[in-house]
Structure formats: structure tokens, C-alpha cells
Amino acid sequence: MMKVGYVFSGTSLSAGSTKSLLLILEYMKSQGHTCYVICPDSNGAYRYLTKRGFRCLNVPYRFASLPKHESIKDLLYFIPKYFARKILNYRAVVKCVNLLKNEDIQLIHSNTSVTNIGNRIAEKLKCVHITHIREYGDLDFNQIMPGINRRLNRHGNYNICITRGIYSHRRLNDNNSIVIYNGIESKDYVRFNPNKEPFILYAGRIEKTKGIETLIDAYIKVVQEKTSYKLKLLIAGGAASPPQLELYEELKKRLSKYPEVENRVEWLGDIDNISDYYYNAYVTVVPSYFEGFGRVMAEASFNGSLVLGRNTGGTKEQFDNGFAYTGDEIGLRFDTEDELIKQLKIIENFDSTNFFDMIKRSQSAVVQFYSKESYVESVFKFYNEILNIK
What we know:
Layout: E1 3-7, H1 16-30, E2 34-39, H2 44-51, E3 55-58, H3 72-100, E4 107-110, H4 117-125, E5 128-133, H5 138-141, H6 148-152, E6 157-161, H7 164-169, E7 177-179, E8 197-203, H8 212-225, E9 232-236, H9 242-256, H10 259-262, E10 265-267, H11 274-280, E11 281-286, H12 295-302, E12 306-310, H13 313-326, E13 332-334, H14 337-347, H15 355-369, H16 372-386
Helix pairs in contact: 1-16, 3-4, 8-14, 13-15
């Protein structure tokens, strides 16, 4: 049986990276393997996994990226934050090594590429390491991670990329890297509601990188041009950090200038039953500027929602996979705000189109590429290959 250590980059249970790692942990436990979980705090996933009998270590650490340096205030605190982060991460490595050195760990699996303590722990424990690369880092989150390419190609490190786009972006090779798509739902889970409700759905954080401003601006223009436009806009997602809260207030203020639009927008916040909103929506819009994978797109398709997405990053790759598999488009793409506006107008006449066929194609594609079963089995197979288990 295997003994594997897992390094979380954060513990939010709503984060796609957390959901994906929980699938692996549950699978490993069900197969009788021993899992050690390293978390940067005692919230969310730490509490959930502790209650489920996993051995969890609460060891504070930070990302391996440089601190923000976008404002004068950021620059003033840059050097203190940089060295504070280095010291905290050094202490985290020492503590984890001391706690795990007698456990005969065979493999350390870091859940994202934005942390590097997993690599250092594995080096000290003389075991192999896997970096699960779930983000571009620079293109999607504007992060600078010094030495990341060297870290990803270091002897003893292996990589799982969640898309071919990320694989290519990091210039990896088949000697130590593989592409495994995220598992979203069971292959037996697909549902479809032909009696759609007249609303547009946005599901995601209130964050600039998620492209919500583009959607709000496009929606304002659509409703201004046609005051009888029948589709409401529902926004399902929270704002927790100061930049997110600032953007939320800015968008609310922007909408307040257009009362005829403002009263058609509902801010739902974080919700537990997002799948029911996918199920009922005319369309789910994924306007992210450069989504690493685009979990929302796959979730929406499993639940029978038409997807309208920006033709970039992981969203584009999902569209392309679907087209290659089914021979036709599985959703609606846009590149510019004008194209988004055009598509929002077309979607109003949902009942008179062939969108039902498009949704059905998307469902056949997500079952093929993004099932939970395929995901965990592929990861486990990679473990065996790395450890030379026959």
C-alpha cells in the first residue's frame, strides 16, 4: 500500500482545486492507502478531512510567487513581505519534515504549482514529488513565480497538467509530465431540463480575472438597446478579499446608473445548490480572461446548461475537445464584448433554436473527458508508473 503526502495551496471547499484533490483523497482512502494532508490553515478542507479520519497537519505557509507590487503601498512592503514569506515557508518545510520523517512517505503530491514547499519536503524525505499544475499563474492570476520552470523540471519531480494548454505553456515533456483533465461528475450523472427559466447565470468569484466586468457591461448594453429583453442576470459567487469587495462595490455602483438594468440583476453570493441553477438557466456565461481549466463550463454541461464562453485558455480547450469528439460545436464562443452582446441577443430566442442539440453534444463530451472515474484512475495509474508498481 502507498503512503502519500498531499500539500494544499488553500483550504476553501468552494475552490475547484480543493474539490479535485478531495476526489483523489477519497479514492486513495477507499483503496486502503495512507494519506497525510498538509494544510496552510485549519479551515475548510482541514476540518472536513480531519472529521473523515485523515491525518492532517496545520502548518502555515504561503505561495511561492512574489508579493503584489502594483501600487506604491505594495512596493513599500514588498521586501518585508518577501522575506517574511521565505522565512514562513522555510519553517513549514522544517516542521513537516520533522513530523513525517519516520512515516516512510513514498510520494508528495502538491495540489497546485503556486506552492513549492512540497518539492522541498520531498527532497528532504528523499521521495518523489508531483506538482499538479492547475493554473497558468502568469496569464490567469498575474503571478510571478521565480524559478518555477527549473522546479518543474528538477530530477525527482513529476507534473500533472489539467490541460494541454498549460502543458505547452510550461514547455514540459513526456519524460516527467502528463495531461489529466479534472473530474467533475460521475460518468452516470447527466441531467437536462427542457423547461428552462429565463435567466443568464454567472458562477464564480467576483474577480477581475473572471471577466465579470465584461459580462456586466455587455448586459447593460443589451438591456439598454432592448428594454423588453426577457432574460435576468443571476450572479452566483462571493467576494471575500479586499480587491474582490472593491470590485463588487464598483459593479454595484456601475449598475445603479441604469435602474432599468439594475433591477434585473440578482447577486446570489456563494450558494450550495449551484447545480440547480445550471439545470434551469437559459445559459451559463464563462467570461474568464484565461481560465486554467474552466470547471464551471464542465459543471454546467453535466447539468444541462448551454455554455457561452470566452474563446481562450481551458474554456477554448473544452470547446475544441467537444468539437473534435462530436463533430460540431458544444457551446457558444466569443472573443470580444461585441460578440458577447450578439450572442446574448440570440440566446433570448432560446426556444426557437437548436440549442437543445448543442447541450446534448456537450454532455456526451463531458462524460467522455471529465468524469470523476477517469480522473482518479488516471492519477492513480500515474502514481504506479512513477513508483514502478506493477
